[in-house]
UniProtKB/TrEMBL annotation:
First and last residue of the signal peptide: 1-22
rRNA processing in keyword set: no
UniProt GO MF annotations: copper ion binding; oxidoreductase activity
Protein name: Multicopper oxidase family protein
Domain named Plastocyanin-like: residues: 89-205, 260-318, 395-511
Keyword Zinc belongs to the record: no
Domain of life of the organism encoding this protein: Bacteria
Amino acid sequence: MDRRTFLKFNTLGLASVSFAYAMDHSKMNHGTMDHSNHNNMNTSFIDFAPKDLKLLNINEIASGKKLAPLTLLKNESKEKNFFRATIEIAESEIEIAKGKKTKCYTYNKLIPGPKIEAYEGDTIEILVKNKLNEATTIHWHGMPVPPEQDGNPHDPILAGRERIYRFTLPMGSAGTYWYHPHPHYTTSKQVFKGLAGVFIVKAKKDALSHLKEQDWVISDLRLDENAQIPSNTLVDWLNGREGEIVLINGQLKPKIEVDNQRIRIYNFCAARYLNLRLSGAKFVLVGTDGGLIEKPVEMQELFLSPASRVEVLITSDKKGEVKLESTYYNRDKMMVKESPYTLHLADVNIKNSAKNIPQILRQLPPLEEPKNFKEIIMSEDHHKMHGIMKKSESEMKSALASMFLLNGKVFDMKRVDERSKLDETEDWIIINKSHMDHPFHIHGTQFELISSKFKGELKKAEFRALRDTINVRPNEELRLRMKQEFVGLRMYHCHILEHEDLGMMASLEVVEK
Ligand code: C2O
Ligand code: CU
Ligand code: CU
């Protein structure tokens, strides 16, 4: 949508600041499937929250408690280099607001899910029991897992069924990963209902293995006045949903103590962009999604688009309490007008600043020259937005399910969009020709940003880093270098989960050389 259309929406008074409903719900028939769309597009997964939805008062949630560490997933194996465990996926009632039970989807009855911690070289065997009334998968985000073990939408675990995911963690794969569902059309819903967990792969020894660790899992949640998780609004479907309640390890505004530690930070939010800062202290970036970077980099602010992770240390001249905040990031949302705001996420007590930080953290192998190129264009079909408010519910759903595109197409499970050769280094040029930010993610590998082009200015990457997810601004062009080391089908998509469900996704087939 261009600026003019955007303004038009706003002058019509159809969007409000905190919670926008820009649609006529009177025509809607909630909770029924919609079969009336004109083409054969599936839109039955799109549903809308009731118009008169009232949100929970955030004061009903306890805050200010000491940050609890994540619960570890227990290794049931006695064998060396073998990790065996069970994950049960079910609907559970969790007390998030005082005295109220929230129906959530959970991994082993926990939000966030249990933390998996394993070592390079380990073989992982996880039995997954799906006790939900719907299909799901577990996708091992960012990890070098064979495609048939990676929870692709093509391999659902049907309701009531179970399966075992089995893979071996290669040497050099130490990094900060996570796992979440990836079923066709319903990933965003299953994640905002609570399904996501941390997966850390450790090296037996690395430059920072002497340090104690902490995890800060940042997620967001929306609760209605009865403390239940409502469906998306139209605005959520357009921009990705940002839950009003932002949590760290499932806690509201916790008190955190940091004592010269290695901290892994995760953005589990479906669509919320984080721009973290510490009042009176600094971050030292030491790692990204795929593990340690080469040298520490001091940072005043940490930008984390959805699904990104970092490893940091904290330095400060003085001891004592500082605020962890997320400052506003304007990502050009549709149909909402926000005034910039800063989120207070936690109070951090710095007991000891990081000291003696090694100046060499890791040596990455020399960059390989690309043998091939691919161009991926992110776009939005603006015509679909015209008069969206006047449309019937089914027309609105069809518009949603056909407007977020990769190389001009909506995702089709039966189509292969790109092919790559096994172990062949490629440059992927990701171009955002839409009007809003989209975080690009590809399965099965870690890439390096080589350069970016924005408003005519070409910039080389400031440092080498392994990532699997990266934000692309409107009119920005990124050059990413990568290779795939397993034969089979991989997905790449926008990691705003609503966009993924609406079809801003495609598939890559990796073939033998
Ligand atoms: Cu984290 Cu295909 O996703
Ligand atoms: Cu992924
Ligand atoms: Cu997107």
